[in-house]
Amino acid sequence: MTKVNLQTILAAQARIAPFVRRTPLEFSPQLGAHLKLENLQRTGSFKLRGALYRVLALTDEEKRRGVVTASAGNHAQGVAFGCAQLGVSAVVVMPEATPRIKIDGTRGLGAEVRLFGSTYDEAEAEARRIERESGRVFVSAYNDPLVIAGQGTVALEILQDLPDVAQVIAPVGSGGLISGVGMALKAANPAIRVVGVSSRATPAIYNHFKGARLPQLPTIAEGLSGEVEPGALTLDIVPQVVDDILLVEERDIRAAIAWLVEAHHLIAEGSGVVGIVALRQWPDLLAAGPTAVIVSGGNLDIEELRRVIA
Q1: What is the DSSP string of 255-293?
Q2: Both 234 and 293 in a single domain?
Q3: Treating both helix axes as pointing N-terminal to C-terminal, what angle do 47-56 and 145-161 enclose, rounded to 10 degrees?
Q4: Distances in Å between the alpha carbon of 39 and those of 6, 247, 266?
Q5: How many domains does the chain have?
Q6: Does residue 157 contact residue 20 with C-beta atoms inside 8 Å?
Q7: What is the rounded CA–CA span in Å between residue 224 and residue 198?
Q8: pTM score, two decimals?
Q9: What is the pLDDT of residues 79-131, one digit of tens each?
Q10: Averaged pLDDT, 226-254
Q11: How far apart are CA 253 and CA 122, in angstroms?
């Protein structure tokens, strides 16, 4: 299996460069930190990077078989985008409560969307069933070295734009983003602090990292939902490259979405703003030095936005 290291992340950057947007790193005077705006990425999320890199690596035989994936929505759009570039058939399984913007975005890119189950875990189980019965290639949202390497390209851009970065704060769901980002940052400078943030309702990686047993709950940060499959790469990588993981509350996530609209005229989804929540709650984090916060996605339904800012 391909290893995740700085070389594979650099290779990912070169391969996906023609397709992805080099997103801005914008300083927020109100936060005292830089915002890495992956909500402005094509498809509205960093997930495009890893999904695209994995799809571009399909063999000719795998392309003929087609792919299947499970997603809370953002990974789905990345897979659909990549498959559209190659003319590959894609089936995407999403939980029934997936925001409409993510469903429509995925269908608009040509993938077949099937809504199944009330949770991400149920959707993934259905996608695995389709894999077994159809022979399609399953493209994991996190448990794949190429996906993780693609996500790590976010860190390369941060290092280029903020060479003296001392700390990067990133959302944590199943750990694909922070694994790739942490691997790139620690390879560049082991002293760079890597901090993950999850909603208290989405504690899968937090539980493994801290030895806790918090439950999964409904959340506005649905992009971070889901358990991590046993033996996943991220369970091995995260403890090596992450310094701490913090949990934030639902009400504070909603407040941060509204704050970002008001302060920066930017829209981000719940999973995208958890790093902002952490800095608003614990400003002492900035003592580490120049800090970048990854705003990981912007696919927020207009109805949800109305509720948040009402």
Answers
A1: HHHHHHHHHH-----GGGSHHHHHHHH-GGGGGGSSEEE
A2: yes
A3: 130
A4: 24, 21, 8
A5: 2
A6: no
A7: 7
A8: 0.95
A9: 999 999 999 999 999 999 899 999 999 999 999 999 999 998 999 999 999 99
A10: 96
A11: 25
